[in-house]
Amino acid sequence: MEVIRKMDEVYSDLLKYQTALEEQNNKLEESQQFIFGVLAAMSDILVVCDQTGTIEDVNQSLIELTGKTSAEWRGHPLVELFADDISRKQAELKFNGLQGQAIHDCEMQIRMANGSSMPVSVNCTARFNKKGKSVGMVITGRPVGELRRAYHALQEAHEALKRTQQQLVHSEKMASLGRLVAGVAHELNNPISFVLGNVHVLERYAGRLKEYLDAVHAGRSGIELAELREKLKIDRILGDIRPLIEGTIEGAERTRDIVDGLKRFSAIDREEECEFNLVEIIQRAVHWVTNITSESFQVEMDLPHFIPVLGSAAQIQQVIMNLVQNAVDATAEVKSPRLRIQAKIEKDKAVVEFRDNGSGILPENFPKIFDPFFTTKPVGKGTGLGLAISYGIVERHNGALFAANDAHDGGTIFVLNLPLYQSAKN
Ligand SMILES: Nc1ncnc2c1ncn2[C@@H]1O[C@H](COP(=O)(O)OP(=O)(O)OP(=O)(O)O)[C@@H](O)[C@H]1O
Ligand SMILES: [Mg+2]
Questions:
Q1: Does 3.40.50.360 match the CATH number of domain 2-144?
Q2: How far is the CA of 386 from the centre of ligand 2 (A)?
Q3: What are 16-44's pLDDT values in tens digits?
Q4: Which one, 252, 297, 373, 379, has least CB within 10 Å?
């Protein structure tokens, strides 16, 4: 009985061991399957070698690349992987001397299934056993061709993008040049055509006057001369001459103003730089503009005594005069037209605000107000160059000029920033 009981115990122990063994076996199979799956899915090539450089195993990528099975590779020297003598020599040198240190991204040629070679970026690290003893190495490699192709594609896309950008910049430049030329042509066309028209009329009049004077000098009789005077409309000519000449002068002056504006716009007439008090310039600019405007236009100024700025005082005065003149024009229809000018020093810059209670700027016009020849004023009233020139001047002084609609008062706010003159501040 005792023996039978013992046998039963041993048998049940055996059964337990068998189940445990089966469980462990399953786990082992699972993890082997996992490792195999990972190795098979790798797109990089993988080679495992022993210490002498003999291949122990390879992955699916290398099998596909070289056309040899893992059984065919096993036991062969690693150098056989490489296609040319240089790569083989390199491999011998590198992998033989490998003692714990790794090799990174070394480009080598691998022999492919069809006999040709493929550049591969090779990495190699030493492999250790449980006790930390080096037992061989693991080599991985990524075909460089793919990287190169991706790199070339990227470079080409970048080049194409650069070309498109250059074209865009170029066509934008051409378009704005076109707008500028069209604007100049349009602006100049008017005064030049009436100057030309007037000169033609004067030429005709000169002919008739000469005819009349010839008759006077020829000593014709009073009656004859009176008839001739009537026929040649000499009296009308004499009345016309002055307005014709005045008109011609006005046209010529307008042409000169436009050219002046253009010259300033392109900064041909650049002046010497000097230190000046911005406050004085504001006061002078306001004085000049309000001198010739209606008395109802009120300017309220809140200014410190002294704001030192470096640059061209005349040009900055021109900027401020244009801002004040714009405010005068914008408030023409307003009952009590008003402009508030406030200047202050903020850190290292001067900030001047111009707030009017005029018409404000339509949202669709905001992006255009600094464009040359953009004007909403009637023909002959504004050239549309004022803000464009001002913008250029302020930029050359390393400052900024921008506009906003005044949400509280209605009207427009222009803000002018200019850097303070440093040495005067110390
Ligand atoms: N304070 C303002 N309020 C409302 N609109 C303004 C104001 N300042 C400028 N603008 C708008 O911006 C446009 C361009 O102004 P800019 O000073 O460049 O030219 P302009 O005044 O029309 O002509 P110019 O200054 O050559 O006589 C003006 O026609 C106007 O529509
Ligand atoms: Mg203006």
A1: no
A2: 4
A3: 999 999 999 999 999 989 988 888 888 88
A4: 379
